[in-house]
């Protein structure tokens, strides 16, 4: 016996150890074939035996009634009744009885008097002797049908009382048909039935073989214990891995959805749910529907960043469906954003280092040459003039926003882009949700810097306007780039939609989708506005409720 250890599981298998059933010695398809053939043969034999019994009993019953009818016919002849009453001195009874026997093919037509003495019999040696079977019922005035053995063997008999012309009971008439003849007719009938039964068995065997082959094809040649193992292993794997797994059949309906996939999608689709009814949007819907199948595709689902892969599944050239894997990369993207923020601060510090080094070199040169008054004036100038790397204005006292704007100003300077803080900027409060603010503002500014750097307008510039309204923060980011094409203005916020190509293999089209998702998660939004100035490119407006103290 084999034991499978499942890390996680769902009903009907549950958690823990699964004990594998022992493998049978005979293959399941052969077991089914043998069982079906056995059932067909059993039914055929039982039916044949039942038919033989019913046929034999029915024929004997019919011949007995035939004998009774013939006996009634003989007994209704008044000549025979009167002849028996007179003792049949002229042998009329025997003559007429033999004539009826030969005409009907009966085994015998026997006529007796009231004492049971035969007056007619096929064997003349028996005439004058008492009948070998009990005649009392017929001699008492009753009609009888019976299967009895007499001097001529086993026969189906009919016995009736015999009356003369005045109605006096004078004897009996007994007519019999050979039971062997009945059996021969039964055998002929059963021979035909046996042929039909054999054909039925042969047809049943062929049908059983066809069913066995079809069953083998449908189960891919696997045995029941192998299917049980596969199901248990599938449950253990599907519900034990950290990736989401969705499987679809050839009609695009959900056949498998593990817990991780349900968590990442935010919904648990029922089995056989069509893709069109799944509550997903953007490129994720296209991937699930099989319309877009690039490898390691980054998509946004709710507030998560997912890496999606789709693979078609086939067996022996027959398409079985598709499997979609979902990997959560939200934490990775958060770490990447934090790393970008650290890199931005590092770039700002590096720019400041170069600037301060240049100033110190200038001051050192003035002192070495003895220009002390010029050196003192230069120091006073440095104390009065703000740093060229974009120090935050006094209208933004928050340290988070101040550090962010300073770092972005340094990055913009290195890219050849002028970063401006609008004169109307006013944020008197402090940022209470720095992660959401930097996520939205950072993505908008990064997109604006790239658009301005790649645009044709010079000087390249980006302008940021921040307005605090109680606890709400309003952000406007304007760049000097080429703007957003009209055909993309409705789709620019969908994941995967971008006005630029890839950058060193990194996915494009996620920044604006993440910014809008983060804003809407707080009840705000990010929209595209019409530019006011003629030489302005794109204008993005964000509203972030409840992010300021």
In the CATH hierarchy, the third-tier topology of the largest domain is known as: Beta-Lactamase
By secondary-structure content and strand pairing, the structural class works out as: alpha+beta
Overall CATH architecture of the largest domain: 2-Layer Sandwich
Strand order of the largest sheet: 4-3-7-6-5
Write the H/E string, N to C: EEHHHEEHEEEHHEEHHEEEHHHEHEEHEE
| β-strand number | 17
- Return the CATH class of the largest domain: Alpha Beta
Which percent bin holds the helix content?
40-55%
Which word captures the global form? Answer: rod-shaped
CATH superfamily of the largest domain: PAS domain
Round the Cα radius of gyration to an integer and report it. 54 Å
Q: Roughly how many Å apart are the termini? A: 66 Å
Average pLDDT score = 79
For the record, the count of structural domains works out to 3
Low-confidence stretches: 1-20, 385-391, 502-507
Number of helices: 13
Describe the largest sheet.
5 strands, antiparallel
- In percent terms, what proportion of residues is strand? 15-25%
Report on the structure:
This protein is an alpha+beta fold and 549 residues long. It has three domains: 23-238, Beta-Lactamase, CATH 3.30.450.20; 242-327, PAS domain (Beta-Lactamase, 2-Layer Sandwich), CATH 3.30.450; 390-544, Histidine kinase-like ATPase, C-terminal domain (Heat Shock Protein 90, 2-Layer Sandwich), CATH 3.30.565.10. It is 44% helix and 21% strand. It is built from 13 helices and 17 strands. A five-stranded antiparallel sheet has the order 4-3-7-6-5. Helix 12 runs antiparallel to helix 13 (511-521). The longest helix is centred in the first third of the chain and has 48 residues, at 28-75. The two termini are 66 Å apart.
């Amino acid at each position: 016996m084999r034991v499978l250890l499942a890390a996680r599981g769902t009903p009907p298998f549950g958690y823990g150890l699964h004990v594998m059933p022992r493998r049978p010695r005979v293959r399941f398809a052969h077991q089914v074939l043998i069982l079906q053939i056995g059932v067909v043969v059993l039914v055929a034999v039982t039916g044949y035996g039942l038919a033989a019994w019913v046929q034999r009993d029915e024929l004997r019953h019919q011949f007995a009634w035939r004998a009774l009818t013939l006996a009634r016919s003989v007994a209704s002849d008044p000549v025979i009744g009167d002849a028996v009453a007179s003792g049949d001195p002229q042998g009329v009874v025997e003559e007429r009885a033999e004539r009826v026997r030969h005409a009907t093919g009966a085994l015998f037509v026997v006529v007796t008097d009231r004492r049971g003495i035969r007056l007619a019999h096929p064997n003349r040696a028996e005439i004058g002797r008492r009948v070998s079977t009990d005649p009392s019922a017929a001699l008492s005035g009753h009609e009888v049908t019976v299967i009895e053995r007499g001097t001529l063997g086993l026969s189906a008999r009919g016995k009736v009382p015999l009356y003369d012309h005045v109605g006096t009971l004078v004897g009996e008439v007994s007519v019999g048909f050979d039971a062997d003849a009945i059996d021969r007719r039964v055998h002929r009938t059963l021979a035909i039935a046996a042929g039909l039964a054999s054909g039925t068995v042969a047809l049943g065997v062929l049908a059983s073989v066809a069913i066995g082959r079809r069953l083998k094809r449908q189960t891919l040649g696997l045995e029941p214990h192998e299917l049980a193992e596969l199901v248990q292993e599938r449950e253990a794997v599907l519900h034990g891995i950290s990736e989401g797994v969705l499987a679809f059949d050839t009609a695009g309906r959900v056949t498998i959805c593990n817990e991780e996939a349900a968590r990442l999608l935010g919904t648990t689709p029922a089995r056989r749910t069509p893709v069109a009814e799944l509550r997903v949007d953007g490129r994720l819907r296209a991937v699930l529907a099989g319309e877009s199948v690039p490898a390691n595709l980054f998509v946004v689902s709710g507030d998560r960043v997912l890496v999606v892969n789709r693979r078609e599944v086939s067996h022996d050239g027959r398409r079985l469906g598709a499997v979609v894997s979902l990997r959560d990369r939200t934490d990775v993207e958060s770490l990447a954003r934090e790393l970008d923020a650290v890199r931005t601060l590092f770039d700002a510090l590096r720019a400041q280092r170069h600037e301060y080094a240049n100033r110190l070199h200038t001051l050192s040169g003035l002192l070495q040459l003895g220009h002390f008054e010029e050196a003192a004036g230069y120091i006073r100038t440095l104390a009065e003039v703000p740093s060229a790397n974009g120090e935050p204005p006094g209208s933004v006292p928050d340290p988070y926003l101040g550090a962010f704007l300073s770092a972005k100003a340094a990055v913009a300077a290195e890219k050849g882009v002028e970063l401006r803080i609008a004169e109307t900027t006013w944020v008197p409060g402090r940022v209470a949700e720095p992660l959401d603010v930097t996520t939205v503002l950072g993505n908008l500014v990064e997109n604006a810097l790239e658009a301005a750097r790649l645009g044709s307008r010079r000087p390249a510039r980006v302008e940021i306007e921040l307005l605090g309204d109680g606890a709400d923060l309003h952000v406007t980011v304007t760049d000097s780039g080429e703007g957003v094409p009209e055909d993309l203005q409705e789709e620019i916020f969908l994941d995967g939609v971008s006005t630029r190509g890839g950058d060193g293999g990194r996915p494009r089209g996620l920044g604006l989708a993440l910014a809008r998702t983060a804003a809407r998660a707080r009840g705000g939004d990010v929209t595209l506005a019409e530019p006011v100035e003629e030489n302005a490119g794109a204008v993005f407006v964000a509203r972030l409720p409840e992010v300021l103290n």
